Amino acid sequence: MACLTCKVEKLSNEYPPENVSKECDHPSLICLRCVVTYVDKNGKCPHPNCGLMISKQSQTMNLFKAYLLKQFKEYESAYTPSIDFGEGSQFVNITGLTGESASIPFTPQMTVDQLKTQIQQKLKHDKGKQKLLYNGKEMTVMRSNGGYATLSDYEVNPNTTICLVICLFSIPENFDDVIFDLYWRYPSHGRDYLDASCLLFRGNSFQQVVDFRGSASITAVRHSGDVMNDAQRIGHHTINVSLKKIPSNVTHLFFTLSAWSSPNISHYPNPSLKFYDATKPGNDLCKTTFHHAKNSRAVVMCSVSRDSQGHWKIFESGQLSAGNAQDYQPLISTIQKLIKSGI
């Protein structure tokens, strides 16, 4: 997600963990560096239409400065073409969409398989579930001629960034109905909605959305609508996907969460999300987390994508975004950027 102030795409952990003041009632869409710089200069919240006066030496500001110093000591240029790790040092920076990252010593002769092994050791993601992207291209382990692919085959330069995407689950061919199941508790101000939505794409082209309003044009994706329990203050959405009925031209289904009236997801206590085969509701197909997204208005949770052989796979996302079920355009733009990058 791009910072509102500097307009640079940033990782989730480059945003403040909370608003600069508890009195601020807006999503945290300005990066940590811009918040600290603005408050130090102007003594007030940098968010548009807020302007709340903030003490430069408040406990929250001192905490933000400590976070900033810690986070950017090593990864200060994570989104520039190259990263300076010191004279004579050469690394590749591995970055996931949820903010995790690792630095791996670089040699042009290193194979993609060797790189995945080091990622597994550092970030604990199985090699078989890793998808590596560089300059919008997937880095495969093997060359087309059968040899092991190297970093030089993909023209990877030292001190640059490779994107890591995790395949959460390869859906077997005998699966048909899978269910995206979301519960949330009401915010303190009363009934409100944490919307689960499914956005369908053909390549990079947005086709349609299925949300609480339903969809008359596609029966393969069915939304429960708002299931609200006012007595227990619990909301519930389910999205049922019949994979075998998905039109053949649809290549991606992106599942998103977004806050309806509240400024960000953190206002909904104890949300619970499951993804399971309809015939085995007790067995989660994959584990996802959105703790990093609590200060965002919306998050792209995961995608169900069709590969070149027609097999469906669930990929982790966690990409933060603006927008919600009242205005999908920011989410569509975020997803199109993900697809363009090869995700």
UniProtKB/TrEMBL annotation:
Protein name: Ubiquitin-like domain-containing protein
Residue ranges of domain Ubiquitin-like in the record: 92-166
Ranges that cross the membrane: none
Coiled-coil annotated spans: none
InterPro entries reported for this sequence: Stress/Tellurium_Resist, TerD, Ubiquitin-like_dom, Ubiquitin-like_domsf
Organism, as annotated: Mytilus coruscus
